Amino acid sequence: MSFLDMDEWLVELQQRADVVYGPFVDTKEYPQDVDLVLIEGAVCNSDHVELLHTLRSRTKVVVAFGDCAVTGNVPAMRNALGGAAPVLQRAYIELADTNPQIPRAEGVVPPLLERVVPVHAVIPVEHFLPGCPPDAGKIKAFLTMLLEGQPVQLSPQEIKFG
Amino acid sequence: MAAKTLTINGQLISAEEDQTVLAAARDAGIEIPTLCHLEGLPDVGACRLCLVEIVGWPRLVPACVTKVAEGMEVYTDTERLRKYRRAILELIFAERNHVCSVCVSNGNCELQNLAMKLGMDHVRFEYRHPNLDVDVSHRLFGMDHNRCILCTRCVRVCWYVECAGTKNVAGRGVNSRIITDMNQPWAEAETCTNCGKCVQGCPTGALFYKGATVAEMERDRSKLEFIVTAREKKQWLV
Ligand code: SF4
Ligand code: SF4
Ligand code: FES
């Protein structure tokens, strides 16, 4: 949403870069030879880990984008419960109003990781852009530096968590 | 009082003999990052953010508890210090649960500000994510152990300014906790005078006024400054 907040600059961006994968793109398979990926969200289940390894092997520059990707943020709060089993127990059994059961569907519902971790705990990351969410101005400034091939230098305000 | 002459980052400085390196630096307009230091409280050297290099000394020392000496050569912002400070900050973030986006102090937090200032864009250490309590038993205040950095500013303000002695540290190392009285819920701590000075003194979102939600917990440090000036200079300036 914050990305869309860049408004008309998106048109300019679209002229300088092809958007090849993401929530706005139909492709299901992560493409080869990608220059830049902005990866958002904490690493919570086995599908996330798999996608991270795939995109790392096919991408030049990986950016951890937003607090969840950079720190684990809110999704990682479940770690305090001590693992996947107690989390599922709490969410689907203890707090269930009707029909308490833990969802299980091999190959459909990816198993939760024992602990939620930030992206850089799984794959090497070139840049970090914190913020919950990183606001449009900050994303634009950041992308401009990358597009122009300048070294990425973020001001204190641009690396604020939260 | 005798004066001592020293250099800080090559700048010649004259300080009073009982001054700390931190006080002398700040008098000379040289900024050293701190977290556990609060003007008017005795220093304890808990956070280590204020580490400085002194030529000829074998190890780094905290500026807030190191007295000036004649001929001292102090450096406050070397590559080595920046590296250590950043690591210390990252360890603080990894130790408990700092989720700035949902924290009462988001935008008004000394820890968050320091992370921004020192360029901490991520934490390299594994987060511990301990399971910690929030004590909201008190009528007016809350204590969230998830955000506590054990700087002990609340303890010192409670003992040395309010002189109530309610707050204390229990346990050791990673199991240390700020407690009230004999480790009972805050509401049952009989020595607490409900003055709120600890809440004013806390650098993070660990102590807050009940009713403050995300990013709403702003502090008014002038209240503490008023008390400190009154005690030290016997001046009651509003
Ligand atoms: S106490 Fe400060 S650093 Fe910790 S979560 Fe709250 S705002 Fe962030
Ligand atoms: S509650 Fe606040 S003032 Fe007290 S030790 Fe923790 S962080 Fe410091
Ligand atoms: S300010 Fe000196 S050790 Fe914390």
Walk me through what this model shows:
- The complex is a heterodimer of chains A (162) and B (238).
- With 162 residues, chain A is an alpha/beta fold.
- Chain A has a single domain (4-78, 112-161), classed as Rossmann fold (3-Layer(aba) Sandwich).
- Chain A is built from five helices and five strands; from the N terminus they run H-E-E-H-E-H-H-E-E-H.
- Chain A has helices spanning 9-16, 46-58, 67-71, 84-94, 136-147, and strands spanning 34-39, 43-45, 59-65, 112-117, 127-129.
- In chain A, the strands form two sheets. Chain A has a three-stranded parallel sheet with strand order 1-3-5.
- The longest helix of chain A is centred in the first third of the chain and has 13 residues, at 46-58.
- Chain A starts with 8 loop residues before the first helix and ends in a 15-residue tail after the last helix.
- With 238 residues, chain B is an alpha+beta fold.
- Chain B has two domains: 3-77, Ubiquitin-like (UB roll) (Roll), CATH 3.10.20; 98-232, Alpha-Beta Plaits.
- Chain B contains six helices and ten strands; from the N terminus they run ββαβββααββαββαβα.
- Chain B has helices at residues 21-27, 79-95, 110-117, 153-161, 197-201, 222-233, and strands spanning 3-8, 11-16, 51-54, 61-62, 73-75, 134-135, 141-144, 167-170, 177-180, 207-209.
- In chain B, strands 2-1-5-3-4 form a five-stranded mixed sheet, sandwiched between helices. A three-stranded antiparallel sheet of chain B has the order 6-7-10. A two-stranded antiparallel ribbon of chain B has the order 8-9.
- The longest helix of chain B is centred in the middle third of the chain and has 17 residues, at 79-95.
- Chain B starts with a strand and ends in a 5-residue tail after the last helix.
- The mean pLDDT of chain B is 95.
- Bound molecules: iron/sulfur cluster (2 copies) and FE2/S2 (inorganic) cluster.
- One iron/sulfur cluster (SF4) binds at residues 148-154, 178, 201-204, 206-207 of chain B.
